[in-house]
Amino acid sequence: MEVGDRYDVIYIGGGGASYPGAFELAKKGKKVLLVDDKGLLGGVCTYAGCVPSKALRRWGLTLMDAEVRGGVRIDPDELWGRAVDAKDRVQSEVFRQLRWVAGQLHDNLDFVKGWATIRDERRATVRTEEGERTVETRFMHVGAGSVNVVPDIPGKELAITSDDLYRYEGTPRELYDSLIIIGAGYVGVETAYALSMFKVKVTLIEMMDRPLPNMPIDVSRSVLRGLQKLGVDVKLGSRASSISRRDGRLLVRAARRDGSASEVEGDAVMISVGRRPRVEGYGLESLAGTGLDYSARGVKVNAYMRTTLPNVFASGDVTGGAMLYHSAVVGSLTAAKNIEAGADTYQYNDRLIPRVVFTFPEAGYVGLSEDELRASGVQYNVIRYSMKANSASLIEGHTDSWVKLLVDSKSGRVLGAEAHAPEAASILTAVAVSMMGGLKGSDLYWLAAPHPTPMEAMAEGFRLWELLR
Fold first, then answer.
1. Which of 152, 237, 283, 305 could crosslink 117 through cysteines, CB 3.0-4.6 Å?
2. Alpha carbons 405 and 106: distance in angstroms, whole number
3. Which three-class secondary structure state does DSSP give residue 90?
4. Three-class SS state of 265
């Protein structure tokens, strides 16, 4: 391609916020340029996030199953090496599959490894190994993702982040004996669970009074019990103040809310206090003068994923919303469909995005929480279902798991759900589908979920509620 190439849409970034929409528009005959600095499709999720962390978790579960159910002792260090190899193979296959799909759309889609810099709302400069060129476009889509937040504390350079732990072909080959995790959000909690399964002594330091502080309180409490059951030392209400070396190990000092201090030693420290939108380094500031509304909190978009500039769209982490791959995908498709339609037609609904943390078992929520319902004045019923009554949950050994469904007390429509249960991700997805379809509890009453599966909780919860109220 030569300088001056023209496109219908330029996508900045190759993650879940970009490639689904790029594929959609290319299929519909739009000429699309997709630029990613790594030359890989899948974004942080595949490169150093959701996919590799779950791959390692799967091997940790294998170790637990072998020891608990089979009475077989397994060397966690040896298994870790195999797990890392398997993780890399999974990532390679995802990259290969996505590259293959892009190749099928090559008539309309140009996917390049490079760095795109926005010049104005109609132009961008793309720098590749072959050189630099300027391209013109009718529409622009920003899907630049997010980066790890690293607090400015003394010794921060001694710590790793999730990028270092899960990176494609970069995960440490030797298993830590002990790990200190600063931050008990999604990534911190999932890492604590996964590495504990590999017999790593994990300490989790969180400044708030509960893990997963952005999730409903019942989910947080249940996950905390699960962490402690695995032997994770959870220090709540503690803010990490410094990291230093002592006798070949790392020392984390933390200040408690009561003014006292604590010290924890470990072989490694991982900072996991959250992620922030990536809004620097690719020219967003060049659009500020023409009306783009953005800040360190992200690029502002409306429900149609359109920014404050009519021909510029954005989705995914860079918007500062739900920093989840599946959220980014829906946002990307929403933007693409509106570009294709030439009007604001399709809307993104944040309430339909399940928030799931892959603990053991999984946990999360979808829709409105009880706090939100109370604040809005909506009258609702709570349908609680203990998975002690679910055969599949008992088979898996999760006797303390549960599902909670929220329904409008007047209309009977499903408003949301929470769960800490086997296959909670699937259960919450089914609730999201119910909400999309405007289903009522009386509709789910008739759901014939296969037996024995955790999905039976959807129907059994309503049936028991009808019987016992």
1. 283
2. 46
3. helix
4. strand
Cα–Cα nearest to 12, from 332, 297, 350, 333: 332
Dihedral sign from CA coordinates of 326, 329, 331, 337:
negative
- Find out whether 459 and 446 touch, Cβ atoms under 8 Å: yes
Residue 302 near residue 310, CB atoms below 8 Å: no
| DSSP, res 464 | H
Rounded alpha-carbon distances, angstroms, from residue 462 to 198, 374, 407, 410, 448: 38, 21, 10, 16, 13
The least confident of 69-73, 142-146, 172-176, 258-262 is 69-73
**Do the Cβ atoms of 315 and 17 come closer than 8 Å?**
yes
pLDDT of residue 1: 40
Q: Is residue 105 scored above 60 in pLDDT? A: yes
Q: Per DSSP, what are the bridge partners of residue 148? A: 275
Q: Tell me the mean pLDDT in the region 387-412.
A: 94
* Per-residue model confidence (pLDDT) at position 40: 97
Residue 452 CA to residue 430 CA, distance in Å, equals 17
What's the token pair of residue 209?
């009074």
Could you tell me where the DSSP H helices lie in 149-290?
Answer: 162-166, 186-197, 217-229, 285-288
pLDDT digit string (tens) for 254-267?
999 888 999 999 99
d(CA 47, CA 62): 23
Distance between CA 159 and CA 150 in Å, rounded?
9
β-sheet bridge partners, residue 312: 140
Q: Which residue carries 């995802």 as its tokens?
A: 94
* Closest listed residue to residue 319, CA positions, set 338, 333, 334, 305: 305
For the chain, the distance separating the N- and C-terminal CA atoms, rounded to the nearest angstrom, is 68
